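Hi everyone,

Forwarding the result from last night's run.
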Amino acid sequence: MEALRQLIKPTNGLITIAIPEEYANKELEVIIRLVTIDDISAATSKKNYDFSDLLGKLQWKGDALKEQQQLRNEWR
């Protein structure tokens, strides 16, 4: 699957999409997701969650570095 992304500003209600040459004369599924640039900007500028209310809630008894290394070793 290949994604083709174009940022356009239609003026007459029509959109023209140039398809790469290697897809000429092939049956394609085309999915169009209409999202405004303002919507994208709003979604990416969401505030991060404030975890300060969780501060001091976890009482860790052990060596955090040792536990972290053990978890990483599980993936080797």
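Residues 1-46 form one domain.

Cheers,
N.
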